[in-house]
Design brief:
Shape: globular
Distance between the termini: 10 Å
Radius of gyration: 19 Å
CATH class of the largest domain: Alpha Beta
Length: 302
């Protein structure tokens, strides 16, 4: 099969499409025939060496939407029943410095990382859900928000920020979105009750979800004794003024992903695709990601 890998760190030119063996599912795993797989900033980080792994082959891709192709022993699926070959599914493959990721024709994942695919969107849009929506919901859960919490989400027009606003609004929270001035209409359409641009400094928020990686400038928006949560593990700024700081490290959770699929099918969540690329054009997709300015995910299609 074809798979997208990095053998040496660098820019988009470091991305390679190689031929490799089709992986076999072990006990508790399933193999998915990839229909589509989103390209995320974490893939660019892996490609450039941010997460280490020098001297090893690193497979790229965390999101996947496709169909079950094979099942290992002792695999349980929805309502306790087995996943069956041909089932349409989505999954998060936690692909930190592993030899194969979801940017491939086939991928093996733990069965408990898998959820039934959404019924209301196609496979390309479905592929944009797992990583970003799971990051958003796990971040909100970690912040331990209550109905009277004032929440600021930075990067509100981005994938994680957008899902966070939709999820928070669905929970009845009042959310302020921070993004570029030209994104106000989009951010409000996602459910933000207030909007501020990057040039505005307000402060005083009970909680800040820093989906834009702003660091200390986002931390400054939290009130004394408030909460700050970033989305890059171990990269959060040091605590000041009694603000509790941390970062969410996303984990694969099929049950939680199934709930996100339900919310997508119910119209609570919306997916956004900026552009699709053939798997063989993965390097071009990385170059486009590096250009920035995207409002939606790039998606690779084998």
């Amino acid at each position: 099969m074809r798979a997208v890998v990095v053998n040496s760190f660098g820019g988009p030119e470091a991305v390679e499409v190689v031929r490799t063996e089709v992986p076999e599912p072990a006990a508790g795993q399933i193999r998915i025939k990839v229909g589509a797989a989103a390209l995320n900033p974490v893939d660019a980080g892996l490609r450039s060496g941010v997460f280490g792994g020098e001297g090893t082959r690193i497979g790229l891709g965390w999101d996947v939407a496709g169909t079950v192709d094979a099942v290992g022993a002792a695999v349980g699926g929805p309502a306790g029943g087995p996943w069956a070959v041909g089932d349409a599914v989505v999954a998060l493959h936690y692909g930190m410095v592993e030899p194969l990721g979801t940017h491939a024709e086939y991928v093996v994942v733990p069965a408990n990382a898998v959820a039934k695919a959404p019924a209301t969107v196609d496979v390309v849009h479905a592929a944009t859900l797992p990583l970003n929506a799971l990051t958003a919901v796990q971040a909100l859960d970690s912040l331990e928000l209550t109905p009277d919490t004032s929440l600021l989400v930075t990067g509100a027009a981005g994938a994680v920020g957008g899902y966070a606003i939709q999820l928070a609004a669905h929970r009845g929270l009042s959310v302020t979105g921070l993004a570029r001035e030209g994104d106000e209409a989009l951010v409000r359409s996602l459910g933000a009750t207030r909007f501020i641009s990057g040039a505005v400094a307000e402060g005083g928020f009970d909680a800040v979800l820093d989906a834009a990686f702003l660091g200390e400038s986002a931390l400054a928006q939290a009130r004394d004794g408030g909460r700050y949560l970033g989305v890059i593990p171990h990269a959060e700024p040091a605590s000041v003024r009694g603000v509790r700081t941390g970062a969410v490290e996303v984990s694969a959770d099929g049950a939680q992903l199934a709930e996100l699929v339900r919310l997508l099918d119910a119209g609570v969540l919306t997916t956004r695709v900026a552009e699709t690329f053939a798997l063989d054009d993965a390097a071009k997709a990385h170059a486009r990601l590096a250009e920035g300015g995207l409002r939606g995910r790039l998606v690779l299609v084998p």
